[in-house]
Amino acid sequence: MSNHFADRLIEAVKKKGNPICVGLDPRLEQIPSQIKEKALKSGGSPTKAAAEAVLEFNKGIIDVVADLVPVVKPQIAFYEIFGHDGIWAYQETLKYAKSKGLITIADAKRNDIGSTAEAYARAFLGEVELFEGDQEVVMPMFDADSLTVNAYLGWDGIKPFVEEGAKYGKGIFALVKTSNPSGADLQDLELKEGGRIYEVMGGLMDSWGDDHVGESGYSLVGAVVGATYPAQAAELRKIMPKSIFLVPGYGAQGGGAEGVKPCFNKDGLGAIVNSSRGIIFAYEKMEKFDEASYADAAREAVLEMKKDLGSVL
Amino acid sequence: MSNHFADRLIEAVKKKGNPICVGLDPRLEQIPSQIKEKALKSGGSPTKAAAEAVLEFNKGIIDVVADLVPVVKPQIAFYEIFGHDGIWAYQETLKYAKSKGLITIADAKRNDIGSTAEAYARAFLGEVELFEGDQEVVMPMFDADSLTVNAYLGWDGIKPFVEEGAKYGKGIFALVKTSNPSGADLQDLELKEGGRIYEVMGGLMDSWGDDHVGESGYSLVGAVVGATYPAQAAELRKIMPKSIFLVPGYGAQGGGAEGVKPCFNKDGLGAIVNSSRGIIFAYEKMEKFDEASYADAAREAVLEMKKDLGSVL
User: How far apart are CA A174 and CA B6, in angstroms?
Assistant: First the structure.
């Protein structure tokens, strides 16, 4: 089997029979109280207790979705908010998801240039070299399968991620057309040479992926394209046929199954659809579940989403 | 004294008599061997040893520059590369710099929307609420004075940072015109309505800062404008007169004192100039210093930079 990121992802989507990505955005205030109580009793600092609660919550979700979905996407802001303890929970979450056979997307939207971008790329996708000589240690750090990035800085800012991706069978998803209303502030402006900024960004991603296409026909350079703008998604699908789209905005942000349809190619592949709150905190919306059965609620929400997406794909 | 971020920063620049920002980018391979040896002997994991080495190195730099410069800017990639241990060193570095009276810029180029951007804003600039009721804890987390951000996502992605900034006397620096060659891939494209993308981005920052101008006349919404493009910096200075520019690219990236001059307003204020490697690893370039005297070399490099900038300002 190919170790190319896109091939691994497409294979996982086919195997699970759906393109669902579960967003692990564990807002502490929505985590069931019994998990928080237990974490608080373990005697660590408040941030360590928060990190432990987040990790236990995530493990509960991962356990019930691992056989159903191909991908999970922990959003790092909800971990970083607890400082280094939160980052510990982030690393452990990625590790646990991997141990359950899931493909991981580190949603961190990293961006910088030169050796700084290289440091991020090594940390998230590659390996890190520590110390020298007899004391040298080479180890993966976050060891995510892929990372979201922001390409405002141009090719310099993306190249290190593409290089690490090619070396380690990993991938990236660059922001192209985001799901939020004011994404249009910049992304929708028209250029003198024709087209809008998001279309130019899409074209750049397509060309940056040219040398990194797997057997599946997809490249390791993916794109973030919101479910809330289906017409624009359809245009982008033409501009960047070999990029896998990571599609946020389904569910909580108002994008439905019809909205995500244009993100897919005619082969029914080429996109993964993320849902965060709508799955992990489904227990808050579903009458038959309570806090203690949050994982069962998440599983049911995944099955509903699978059915919903299946109706249009 | 005003607690507004821009006022605090301008005051600090006046007090120290220079606009220098020392970039704390502690690449492990360039940290003096005696510091690494000591950290390795302390018995922690390799990542903990790396984090301890980074922190000790930074403290050595901070101790010798605190009386000379107004600002330090740790770049988070060089900490995140050691996982949660690195983030511990990042938090401790910010805390130590603050204890020495320095203004801090968390260089993390964060970007996201809605509650995700809020989580970043609270973590870096504001306060974090943990748990509820009797167990509630409200605490600052990174407690930086300011944060670099990327505004590709539009106002939704910037508003939470501006709001936390206004509440806590903190600020942001948004990427406008970056110092790297391929920044032009996107930033220099011409728009149908006139102007280039970086100019539009500059105009957005200027307007987003309108409601947040301090007594100094500067707003809490600053901009990253590279020293390597002086002509563009001059244009941007006109477009965004009340934004403080954070200017990378001086020294190692090839921008000299003449290049940074257009980043300043006629009052000689309105910009801070960053140097990272050129200061913290000055010992590698200066014959009269060795590893053990890396801090002395850094101090001399700051004094040289002060003189160089003074010749044009």
Answer: 32
Name the catalytic one among A14, A109, A261, A306: A109
Q: In chain A, what residues touch B88 (CB-CB under 8 Å)?
A: 83-84
DSSP letter assigned to residue B102: -
Sequence spans of domains, chain A: 5-310
Nearest CB to A150; choose among B83, B111, B122: B111
Please, are residues A109 and B111 in contact by the beta-carbon 8 Å criterion?
A: yes
What Å distances lie between residue B21 and B73, B146, B149, B228, B298, CA to CA?
7, 13, 17, 17, 13
SS3 B140: strand
How far CA B37 is from CA of B34, B40, B43, B211, in Å, comes to 5, 5, 11, 51
- Pick from B40, B116, B182: which is nearest to A156 by CB? B182
* Model pLDDT, residue B94: 99
Are B11 and B217 within 8 A, CB to CB?
no
Bridge partners (DSSP) of residue B223 are B174, B245
The span from the CA of B250 to the CA of B272, in Å, is: 11
B104 and B146 Cβ atoms separated by less than 8 Å: yes
Q: What is the ipTM of this complex?
A: 0.97
Query: Alpha carbon of B111 to those of A189, A195, B118, B242: distances in Å?
Result: 20, 24, 10, 23
Q: Does domain A5-310 have CATH number 3.40.50.720?
A: no
The DSSP output letter for A195 is: S
> pLDDT at position B258, please?
87
Task: Find the Cα–Cα–Cα–Cα dihedral B158, B114, A148, B86, rounded to 10°.
Answer: 80
DSSP class per residue in A82-118: THHHHHHHHHHHHHHHHHTT-EEEEEEEE---HHHHH
d(CA A232, CA A39): 45
Mean pLDDT of chain B, nearest integer: 96
Residues of B in contact with A88 (CB under 8 A): 83-84
pTM metric for this prediction: 0.98
Q: Block means of pLDDT (10 residues each) for chain A, length 313 residues?
A: 95 98 98 97 95 98 98 98 98 98 98 96 98 95 98 97 98 96 95 96 97 98 94 96 96 78 95 97 95 97 97 88
C-alpha count within 13 angstroms, C-beta hemisphere, residue B186? 31
Which residues of A, range 77-116, sit inside 8 Å of B by Cβ? 77-78, 80-85, 87-88, 90-91, 109-116
Query: For position B252, what pLDDT does the model report?
Result: 64
pLDDT at position B269 over 80 = yes
What does pLDDT average to over chain A?
96
pLDDT digits (tens, 9 = 90+) for B214-229: 999 999 999 999 989 9
Instruction: State CA B242 to chain mean position distance.
Output: 18
- Contacts with A288 (C-beta within 8 Å, 6 or more apart), sequence order: none
Element (H, E) at B148: strand B146-149
Cα(B239)–Cα(B200) distance, integer angstroms: 9
